[in-house]
Fold:
Amino acid sequence: MRRKLIAGNWKMNLSYKESEKLAKNITEKLDPKVMQKIDTLVCPSFISLGIVNKAIKDTEVKLGAQDIYYENDGAYTGEVSASMLKSVGCEYVIAGHSERRKYIHETNKIINRKVRKAIEFELKPILCVGESLEEREDEIFEGVVEKQIIEGLSEITKESMKDLVIAYEPVWAIGTGLNATPKQASDMHLFIAKVVSKLYDNEVAEALLILYGGSVNGKNAKEILSACGVDGALIGGASLKADEFTDIIKIGAQI
Ligand code: 13P
Structure:
C-alpha cells in the first residue's frame, strides 16, 4: 500500500495568531511513529504561511499555499508569486480549487498556467478537479473531470508529473456534510488514473497520488481512505480542529 498524503486546506479561516496556535496543536498531537508512515501538509492563508512555517519547523508536517499567481513578479496587485511562496517555506500549492473556479471564475486555462508556474519553481501542485451536483445528476461528471484534467495538465511533461498531485473534490460534497460514498470516490479515482494513463502512460498513472476531498471527517475517514485508488485526503472543515485532523492522520497511517 502506498504512503498516503493528508492535507488540510484551512481556506479563509483563522487569524495569524489562531493559525500559529492550530499549527502548534497539530504538531504536539502527532506521534513521530505515525509520521513515519504518512505525509501531512497544512495550507493556511497567505498571511499565516510564515508563522505556520515556524511552528512546524523540525516536524514532518509540510507547508502548502492555497493559490499561486502565474506571473513571476511585477505589477499584479494582490497576487502572490511562486518565488514568494518558496521563500516562505512552501513545498506544495493548491491550484484550481472549486471555490476559486466558482467565485473567482478561474478557468482550466488559468489553472494550467498556475500549475506550470508551480512546477517551474519546484513547488508541488495539487490540481483540484470535480463536478457540480447538476453535472453528477446529468451524468456528465466523467466528461467534466476529464476536461479539467486534460486542460489542467496541458504542456505538463511526463517528468514533471512525479511531483504533481490530483485532488478529486466533488463540489456537492464540499462543506455540505455529504461525502461521496467509497464506491463513488473509488470509481472516480480509477477513472482519473485512466485519463492520466491515456495522456501519459501507465507508469505515470500508477505513481500519481489522487486525494479525495469533500466532507472528510474523523467518522468517515477510515472507509474513504480505504477505498481503492484513494491515496489520501484534502480536508477543509475538519482540518481546523487539531484533534480531528490528527485522528484522521492516524487513521490514514494505519491503512
Ligand atoms: P470540506 O472538508 O470542508 O468539505 O472541504 C473540502 C475541501 O474543499 C478541501 O479543499
User: Anything to note?
Assistant: Residues 4-254 form a domain with the TIM Barrel fold (CATH 3.20.20.70). The CA atoms of residues 100 and 106 lie 6 Å apart.
